[in-house]
Amino acid sequence: MKMKNVSRLLAILLMLNAICLIGFAQKPAKWVAPDKYKTMKNPNAGDASTGKDLFAKHCKSCHGKDGLGDGPKAATLGASCGDFTAKEFQSQTDGEIFYKITTGRDKMPAFGKTISEDNDRWAIVNYLRKLK
Ligand code: HEC
């Protein structure tokens, strides 16, 4: 390949890269839970007090005490933590929220191991329902 063509190719690659960065990096794709989780029944509905304690320990630093996404660590993440009081968030099923807490994504840690009891993660879901 001629040098001129190589640099043309490089220029095109750089442009595509920039388009991807603008298109995807700033606004992450919608986080969708698998169907299996969407319809999952909460086996621990009602226990929000365990959830409150766990939220204070593991989540508040990023999500803020009222779940608005304004915890002290939030500003350093370079990503939005979302707003648990928002209608869009609350319209998810318990199972979808449980899934996101369990698996995490990007800057959102996965808590499947850190909070290893399923019922504890369900209890957090119950507490998040109180934040609306
Ligand atoms: C290090 C900061 C950090 C900590 C700690 C953290 N989160 Fe997150 N969380 C995030 C970020 C950033 C997102 C957005 C992730 C994305 O959309 O890719 C997020 C997203 C979420 C979502 C999905 C929000 C939506 O709009 O559907 C839930 C649910 C959630 N977090 C719950 C929790 C819970 C519960 C804890 C504690 C057990 C926790 N998070 C701890 C940073 C954090």
Can you characterise this structure?
It is built from 7 helices and no strands. With 132 residues, it is mainly alpha-helical. The chain has 2 domains: 1-29; 31-129, Cytochrome c-like domain (Cytochrome Bc1 Complex, Chain D, domain 2, Orthogonal Bundle), CATH 1.10.760. Helix 3 (49-58) packs across helix 7 and helix 6 (94-103) crosses helix 7. The longest helix has 23 residues, at 3-25. The protein is elongated, with a radius of gyration of 19 Å. It binds heme C. Heme C (HEC) binds next to helix 4 and helix 6.
Helix-strand blueprint:
Elements: H1 3-25, H2 35-38, H3 49-58, H4 60-63, H5 87-90, H6 94-103, H7 118-129
Quick recap of the structure?
The chain is mostly helical and 132 residues long. It has helices spanning 3-25, 35-38, 49-58, 60-63, 87-90, 94-103, 118-129. The mean pLDDT is 91.
Key terms for this structure?
132 residues, mainly alpha, Cytochrome Bc1 Complex, Chain D, domain 2, 2 domains, 7 helices, 0% strand, binds heme C
Number of E-state strands: 0
List of distinct ligands in this structure: heme C
Any idea what the shape is?
A: elongated
Oligomer: single chain
Secondary structure class reads mainly alpha
Q: How does CATH name the architecture of the largest domain?
A: Orthogonal Bundle
Low-confidence stretches: none
Helix content: 40-55%
